[in-house]
Structure formats: C-alpha cells, structure tokens
Amino acid sequence: MERLLEQMEKAGLEAMFISRPVNVKYVSGYTGDDSYLLITNHKKYFITDPRYMEQASIECPDYILTEWRSRGSVGKAVAEIAEKEELSAIGFEDGHMTVAEYRSFEAEVKAELAPFDGVIEGFRSVKRPEEIECLRAAWISRRGPLTRS
After folding, report:
1. What angle do CA 70, 61, 34 make, to 5 degrees?
2. Domain of 14?
3. Count of domains in the chain?
C-alpha cells in the first residue's frame, strides 16, 4: 500500500481505481469476485456487488465497503466517493477497463481520469520474503524439497 501511495503521489493522483481481479486480490487480500478498489491518500474503499459484502467484510476489514448495484453502475459508485472525498484526479488500469466502463466513468465521475496501468504488476513481479516462503511451501507440498545444485 505504501508503495502504491508513493507512485500515486509521484503521478499527481489523489486516488487509484483498481479493477483487474488479480490486482484487487494482491492489494486487498480479497478472494471473491465482482470487486474493485478505490484507494485514496487516506482511505481504502472496497466496491462490490451486494452478494459479496459479507465475504468482503471478513477478508477486508480495513476497507470502507460500498456496494454498487443500487447505484446502477460501478462508475456511479466511484462518482459518489469521488464527490464525497473531493477527488480531482483518479488513476485507473487502462489496460483492463473496457470502453463501456470508461465511458460510464467519463460520464459520471467529475474527477480527471488518468491512465495508470502496470504499477501493481510491477509490485507483483518482485516477490517479498513472505511471498517467497509461500511459493517454496507450495513447491514442497507438490514436488518435494527444493535442492540446490
């Protein structure tokens, strides 16, 4: 999270909308479906379908939960948060957002939308020590102990 906030600050962004499922999982730890994140400098919003609110409350206790269906679209849910938080610049994963989703955001969200793709993938490509241990444990459970030659 700290690295993401640093990258957002460098890019002049007040928030980051994360829609790629693997990135949602990496940042939040959430294992379910139909989920999005809006990370601001001071708050973390978890946006999902009402069916997943209970799971999200268990897996993402540090997030402010918001369901999007009653608002009609994810774009409208983000627009409400952006207005409440007075956000003027939001990054988004342009390599993942569909044209229809972008048009919804463009119509609903009053903040500037800035392409900001690949940042989380960069974080994911460099493994932290705890990730390396998980990979090692998974390897051992499937293939036996690792040996160095």
Report:
1. 40
2. 2-143
3. 1
- The reply to whether 105 falls in a domain is yes
pLDDT at residue number 95: 87
Residue 100 lies in a domain: yes
Encoded amino acid at 45, one letter: Y
Q: Collapse the DSSP code of 31 into the 3-class scheme (helix H, G, I; strand E, B; otherwise coil) and give the result.
A: coil
pTM of the model: 0.81
Residue 62 CB partners (closer than 8 Å, separation 6+): 44
**What pLDDT score does 129 carry?**
72
**pLDDT on residue 127:** 60
The two three-digit tokens of residue 92, written as one number: 């988004």
- Residue 66 included in any domain: yes
Q: How far apart are CA 42 and CA 121, in angstroms?
A: 22
Token output for 102: 């972008």
pLDDT band at 107 (very low <50, low <70, confident <90, very high): very high
| Residue 44: strand pairing partners | 39
Distance between CA atoms of 69 and 96, rounded to whole angstroms?
20
Q: How far are the Cα atoms of 28, 64, 123, 147 from residue 32, in angstroms, in the given order?
A: 11, 16, 21, 35
Stretch 13-26: mean pLDDT, rounded? 93
